[in-house]
Amino acid sequence: MKILITGVSGLLGINLAQEAMVAHDVTGVDRGKLKSAPFNILKLDLLNTGAVDSALNSARPDWLINCAALADLEACESNPELARSLNVDLPAQMARACKARGIQYVHISTDAVFDGEKNGFYTEEDEPSPPGVYSQTKLDGERAVLSEDAGAIVTRVNFYGWSLSGKRSLAEFFHHNLTNNKSMSGFTDVIFCPMLVNDTARTLLKMLKKQMTGLYHLVGPQAMSKYQFGVEIARKFSLQEGEISPKSVLSSGLTARRSHNLWLSINKLSTDLGESIPEFSTGLTEFFTQYQQGYPQKIRGYQQN
Question: Looking at the whole model, is its pTM more than 0.85?
């Protein structure tokens, strides 16, 4: 299949391209960060008039996976107009263009559409209550996409992995500080379901192959606090977990509100996919193995100097 990936230089985009190029013809849309990637690159700013049509007409994909977004919560709070353009208007435009061309469209959303006040896990049937600009625009983007194309796939995700900058994921944050003997905090009152980004990518490709449609929670099967996640990273890499101090998000000083509980059920996904979702321990082991094998350096080598 021919796959077009927007936001290909992001954490999910670059790892998705790596996974997809094994069996598919991959083209990525990038504004100029990538120089020597082992897949086709379209240098475009998708917010420019006609850019979406240009990308689709050039790549002629069977599948479009949209990883482009304004995902920085603080940046969304300070620039809500840009957040709406990237997280709502652009995805809706893509969905409309894909439906007109018969292209299967995948939109990446977030677990943060929930306010985290529920006891227990959230299912796809639970009503979202976004706590901030980022989460509200992502929810609006979900609804806009499915309104334009009911046959699209929308996934709520939370992932970690190695990025181009080395600074895009929480796992990299913990690893970088621990390896440089820097103390840091981990939130004890923010619960999430982390998934290795490569598992996220491989699952997305399986969903496309099975021609699944609609809304799915695509996260790891194990819920844990951000603090516990940091401790798990430290233990896997044989680093000093004592350098991580337990802390409440309420005393973090962050502008954008964080939800306390983002435990999402993956029952619908595993049932429709017909298989279990990879365990956290399996993903963490792969993350460690990637480090040992020089994977972070390999993908960073794709960047524009």
Answer: yes
